[in-house]
Design brief:
It is found in: Cell membrane. This protein has 21 helices and no strands. It has 438 residues and is mostly helical. Helix 7 crosses helix 21 and helix 11 runs antiparallel to helix 12 (249-258). The mean pLDDT is 85.
Length: 438
């Protein structure tokens, strides 16, 4: 019965936004209240659950998204994005630009959290789109597919890392197997799939549309690349430093602080203010104005993401995810496929890949010992399932929809299908590896 209620709530959410033309944030709040009541969450806890969901979701994203928007807008306004796009185009040519962006997304996606990588790379995608008049979704989807795969499959991302611990897998082996599976998944869900959606029309957010600047006034190549990718360099560096010095208790506090994505984004924004702002002939007042405008532009995105977090929390607090997973335990299928199905169904119902992965782990872990399944492959199977069919209850869905300014229908045809291809391809890769090493 619970899964029927969840499906009804999701249908109502879609109808409120599409047919009723209601603001997505308001629709999320209404459906979150309905879900809480229908799933018999205690009345006095429904609003607390909604507020917790909004707070928890925004708590980890608001500073990153706002700082990323500031950096992205300055990168666009200063001409750095134009410079990077020009260099990439000259190096790879229009024909292979998709692959260049995809490889870039995969490399930076390993150390970066998904939200950071998204807001960091979207301005680069848009600069290429506007400068060379290429279809936005066609160019951008391969890079975002790479980011998504690293988020779901590869340590040190939160869900895979936690799954490695819960299943008693090896971090190195999981990463190695994950890389083997990730590459075909990215290629199929990225460049190959994007060929079928070339005609999808998208008008990305104006805030990231760079003005064409005279080539003589563009910042240097090194300054443009280093400043734009500074968060990547800093996160990679702090990850390496943390790995080597984590055993020293006296360093743990400072290592935790310097490796925080929000702090790294803050440092990057301040550096950009001087390298691309003051150092490029702008007054600090003008740079701060650009930053202020960037935050205004992502305000509604933050509210929509908060709304999705509210619904996710109501569904989680109601216990529906555990109920669904328990019902699936009796399925007579291969443990790897069972785990993938569990994670996939919970992901579709709840929206969070991390919640789907960790909930599935709690159910499947006791069954793993006697199954004879490689725990490293179980991590990847759950990780792949947790990416299945991202839709209106997932923050990533709304990030993509709002940044690329798409309709819900086109977002499902592009983003949701891409995520599903990643999940299915990932499962296929896991089963092939199981046949080889089993």
């Amino acid at each position: 019965m619970s899964i029927v209620i969840v499906l009804v709530c999701i249908v109502i959410l879609i109808l409120l936004i599409t047919w009723g033309k209601l603001n997505a944030f308001l629709a999320f709040l209404i459906v979150s209240l309905m879900a809480g009541l229908f799933l018999r969450l205690p009345a006095e806890k429904i609003m607390a659950s909604i507020q917790q969901g909004m707070g928890d979701t925004l708590g980890g994203l608001v500073s990153i998204i706002c700082l990323g928007a500031m950096l992205g807008k300055l990168v666009a306004e200063s001409g750095a994005a134009q410079k990077i796009a020009t260099v990439l185009m000259n190096a790879f040519g229009v024909r292979y630009l998709q692959w260049a962006l995809m490889i870039t997304g995969f490399i930076i996606g390993i150390p970066l959290f998904y939200g950071v990588g998204f807001v960091l790379m979207v301005p680069l995608i848009f600069s290429v789109v506007y400068q060379y008049k290429l279809p936005a979704v066609y160019i951008g989807l391969p890079m975002l597919a790479a980011l998504s795969v690293t988020h779901g499959f590869l340590p040190p991302h939160p869900s895979p890392t936690a799954l490695v611990t819960q299943f008693g897998a090896g971090m190195g082996a999981t990463l190695l197997y994950g890389l083997v599976i990730a590459i075909p998944a990215i290629v199929i869900a990225g460049p190959l799939f994007s060929r079928t959606i070339k005609n999808i029309s998208a008008q990305p957010l104006e805030t990231f549309r760079p003005q064409t600047i005279d080539k003589a006034k563009l910042p240097g190549t090194a300054v443009s690349f280093i400043t734009s990718l500074l968060p990547v360099f800093l996160l990679t560096a702090t990850t390496v430093v943390t790995y080597f010095f984590n055993e020293y208790e006296s360093f743990k506090g400072i290592l935790t602080l310097i490796s925080e994505p929000a702090l790294i984004m803050l440092v990057s924004v301040l550096v950009a203010a001087f390298t691309l702002g003051v150092g490029n002939g702008r007054k600090m007042k003008d740079v701060m104005h650009i930053y202020g405008e960037a935050v205004k532009d992502v305000g509604m995105i933050l509210l929509i993401i908060a709304g999705s977090g509210a619904l996710k929390q109501v569904l989680t607090d109601s216990g529906v995810s555990k109920e669904i997973a328990s019902a699936l335990q009796t399925w007579p299928v291969h443990p790897l496929i069972l785990a993938w199905c569990m994670a996939g169904i919970i992901r579709i119902c709840v929206g969070s890949a991390t919640v789907a992965g960790l909930t599935t782990a709690g159910i499947i872990a006791p069954l793993l010992a006697g199954s004879g399944v490689d725990p490293n492959l179980m991590v990847l199977s759950v990780g792949a399932g947790s990416l299945l069919f991202s839709h209106v209850n997932d923050a990533g869905f709304w990030l993509f929809k709002e940044y690329f300014n798409l309709s819900i229908k086109d977002t499902i045809k592009t983003w949701s299908v891409m995520e599903t291809i990643v999940a299915v391809t990932g499962l296929a890769g896991v089963m092939i590896l199981d046949g080889i090493i089993g």
